[in-house]
Amino acid sequence: MSPREIFALRDHLGAELKGRTISDAHDVVSLTDILSHTVLGGRLHELSGRAVLLKLSDQLRSGLAMIELDGIARRMLLCPPDLNPAHLDTLIADAGIDAVVTDEPDRRTETGVSLVVAAHLPLQAAAPAKTERATEWLMLTSGTSGVPKIAGHSLEALTGAIVAEGPARGPAPVWATFYDIRRYGGLQIFLRAILSGGSMVLSDPHEALAAHVARLNARGVSHISGTPSHWRKLLMSGSAAQFAPRYVRLSGEIADQAVLDGLKAAFPNSSVGHAYASTEAGVGFAVNDGLEGFPADYLGNRNGVEMKVVDGSLRIRSARTAHAYVGRNAAALTDADGFVDSGDIVELRGDRYYFVGRRGGIINIGGLKVHPEEIEAVINRHPDVRMSRAKSRKSPITGGIVVADVILTEGTDPARAKEIRDQILEQCRAQLTSHKVPAVIRFVETLDVTPAGKLARTDA
Amino acid sequence: MSVRSKVIEAIQQIAKEQHVTLPALSDDLSLHETGFDSLAFAILVARLEDETGVDPFTISEDAAFPATVGDFVRAYENVPA
């Protein structure tokens, strides 16, 4: 017998709160009576105690399947939409998968897993299930070019920050996110919607931004999250003017002062906050004072999250981190003391820490290490710049130089390009050492963003 | 604009940005005497590559880096179109 009660997602859902929904661009599903319905064709009992691969083409059925499976399956592996199919066999072996939930049952027989359960809409009526166990949640890391790593979480770890914050004040929130909910950043928002008694509006990769914003408005979205790249795209689109959320959240990339100020200007009546979280380290903290970086006194033990800086990178130990990498040759997730090395490099200036970049993202400029994010943060401070990317370029003289691609804010007169270029360079020379100042600045219309919502740096 | 004037203009622009005071740019002026450091030359070569489409110092492996302003300009003038 378990010494304490196990809570699964279903235990946060009940018929007492009316009008709750989860929706995407095509369907609206009521969360109020979700426990007496099934997306799995009534076959949930077959998945009891199984290691289930959740491989669905859309977020709505994925979310509904998560609600059903949590507390019933032994573990479930969430497949994000951009997962390379070539990695599937390795992941199935590493996670010990013995059942698949999919909307393409014919194709899934290729995986060699014999138990295949189809997920489909509309929902069917079914007897409510009872929580049997604490299901292990397996999430894939993003950003690596090889087979992604599998990080194992418990629902308790995933919801640690949500429970610690307590319920939102005022009416039940309607949450939305630009992320996919099968990634850590998006899953946090899905879980917030479930635990907060609110509703959830899902993104759709095939929907134009203006149509997405119109849908967010129509569904009354009050709380919304995305990466700084997602938000910069929204600001560039001109669609922000029609939208007035109460709470705007950024995570997944460095939130520099320019994007925080841009959002505050676009949404003067919203609170704008940035959160630090990763698939491995869980949710570290949220910063709500409108400033980039975080106060130095966040280090140490704060609300059960311990943080320290070793060799420049942020290390985190808490009950919210993943508990292990899963798989045959899985590396250790934490050091001997239980700290996760985030790989995010921070720098203390005054009484605040600032994120300067990823350890793995360093570019080499004539033998000197440079974080492209540090250069971008300076470029982005120019009032006519919306977004930028710094990268290295080979040089026959010094081995490498910094070059930058820059997107100007919407409506900037192209005739001012030379003047703006000179001002950006002046600004960079005043704030960066000389080898970090871009040798060449190119004005571009777009910059690639990965499916995970981060500025693409693969060709850096 | 001739290749020569493109090169000279780029040198002057970078000198302005880098706060380098250039002597008169005669053909026999040694590149050392321009006051440019290696970073300034790296910027110059990168920008000229963007403008002219060529980087004469990467094309040929045994290309010696020029010694004078005149050699430098000729390196761009002598690239086959």
UniProtKB/TrEMBL annotation, chain B:
<dbReference type="Pfam" id="PF00550">
    <property type="entry name" value="PP-binding"/>
</dbReference>
<protein>
    <submittedName>
        <fullName>Acyl carrier protein</fullName>
    </submittedName>
</protein>
<feature type="domain" description="Carrier">
    <location>
        <begin position="12"/>
        <end position="55"/>
    </location>
</feature>
<dbReference type="InterPro" id="IPR036736">
    <property type="entry name" value="ACP-like_sf"/>
</dbReference>
<dbReference type="InterPro" id="IPR009081">
    <property type="entry name" value="PP-bd_ACP"/>
</dbReference>
